[in-house]
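User: What would this chain look like folded?
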Amino acid sequence: MADQTIAAIATPLGEGGIGIVRLSGSEALKIGEQMFRAKSGESLASLSTYQMRYGKAVDPKTGRMVDEALALVMLGPRSYTGEDVLELQCHGGVVVVREILEIALKLGAKLADPGEFTKRAFLNGRLDLTQAEAVLDIVQSRTELGLRVAVDQLEGSLAKRINGIREHLYGLMVRVEALIDFPEEDLPELEQQEMKEIIYAGLEELGHLIATAEEGKILREGLKTVISGKPNVGKSSLLNRLLDENRALVTDIPGTTRDVIEEVINLRGLPLRLIDTAGIRKSEHLVERLGVERSLDLIERADLILHVTDRSVPLEAEDYEVLERTKNKKRIILINKADLPAQWDRADLGVLEGTPVLETSFLQGDLNQLKKLILDYAGPGFQHSSSSAPVITRARHKQSLILAQKALQEGLRTLEGGLPLDLIAVDLFNALEHLGEITGETVRENVIDRIFAQFCLGK
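Assistant: Here's the prediction, encoded as structure tokens.
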């Protein structure tokens, strides 16, 4: 029930300087009164919002002290959820915070669902849906650039942009519907050219936002970058150089890497998901063969492929097979072991249709040029990361924008075809509905539930 007081642990479980148990709802302070004793003797109900008191958390049935604690009171509607909120801050530790939570639950609180605190903030009008999703993006951000984009969205940058588009379209729809509903009134005429200009302006704005979706997806999920090649060409050495640590075992024995190794690095704001795969070759060994199959599957699903070759040994059929398999993928060809005598040159790789080729040594060479190429593939936003323009980071937003774009394009065709105004009104209404899905004004309940199910407990 939405009016039931909820409780959850708001900090990660484990040893730490502080642990927080959070309660939200109409009974939060009443429950808190029973399990917290302020050293000053004051009751929690006597405190103003944002006031804190030192005391102890107790088990009200036995009077036993559980831990020293601070009680922070945040009264609705001036709280995160818009409800009365109480935070009990104790020492960080698995047992102590769990015991305090158990006491709160025994006193009548309900264990919060994942994301339920933020969901209540949305339902109570404290946040729109883009801001609520930004909270999750802040928690999950992997780079400073990703954090900055999420904070901008939390401050309402995306919602303001969407609402600006909606405002112009809504103004047009109101005028169209007035002409439909009151044809006998002496209303100002709505010229076709004026309508076109408003719709064109909306389409332009939507186009700009949709164009940021690819970079936004990378910011949230990382650029999935697979290191491929035959065994013993230097894939694991490349991984270790990019990570600046010995993450993967490197030996002269081919086939050392038989499973997938994945790590994430921050490349100038770009979360780069590096995946070192098993060397691709024909093998009778079951484990190695399974590793090769996984490597081929990852190549198919990669955003970018770093294909490694070894110029100190002759090229083989397997080299050309992988080149052929990746020809339609974004890729960079790396010719490793440039410090050793060459057995072939770049021309022997054949026509690569504009694929960048770098000759280097993973042990001694400079990888700055490789890093620049990776950033180029990720998009211009990672080269010029100072822009404060909103970035679309979620597939849900992109889909709604595309549907709104299609509705406006249909409205433009309706207008140019000289069809009745009521058909244009339908297209405008559809566009507004899809845009409203982004901010939460027209979103369905099952979509809301799916969004907040992604959150952790206590947020």
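Residues 312 and 343 are 5 Å apart (CA to CA). If you want, I can go into more detail on any region.
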